[in-house]
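We now fix the convention by which a protein and its fold are recorded. These numbers are not coordinates but entries in a learned vocabulary of local backbone shapes. A record is reproduced here so that you can trace the correspondence yourselves:
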Amino acid sequence: MPVYRLRQNEISFPTPDLAREDGLLAVGGDLSVDRLLLAYTHGIFPWYNPGEEILWWCPRNRFLIFPEDIHISHSMKKYIRKHTYQIFVNRDFQDTMHHCRIKREFEEGTWITDEMEEAYLELHREGYAVSVEVYEEGELAGGLYGVAIGKCFFGESMFSEKKNGSKVALIAFARFLEQKGFLFIDCQFHTDHLEHMGGQYVSWETFEHLLQEGLQVSS
């Protein structure tokens, strides 16, 4: 299956069913707000290494967390009861995304480049990119960010500065999304950590149905 090259002056994507088996769909284009919104509303997202051209992905088997099914282990429930947290939404999107970048650069490498930071900050200014910040005893404990469109949330990255900081952020935000009627958190790719938190694979047909349903409802 060929990988499609996008044109800079044309905001479009090939249909998701043309993605390769590993999920890679297209290369090139830019990270403009219009292109990013078109991508996410079709289940497509950018993910690439620094110095590479932009790579666009659309895995056929999607890994989701349904907000109402967020898994909180017995040990995690006990940990939360023993600690006091303050949870914020969009307290400092730019700083939260940068923390995600720094943590990944230090530990395993990151796709969050200067270009990505600028693009998602612009998405945030337009009301689509969202951050969650967790504070414990006045200190930043962790957070996450992603893209919210309609009743769909597309998770991008999370970080911890203190033990369980990212888990608390995800649990708190899943509860918030459930209250707001969101249908899913798109994790994009599988990780053992997200599976432990309740993530599960769904077929492309199921994901596409949920996506279309979620996009029809104003958030």
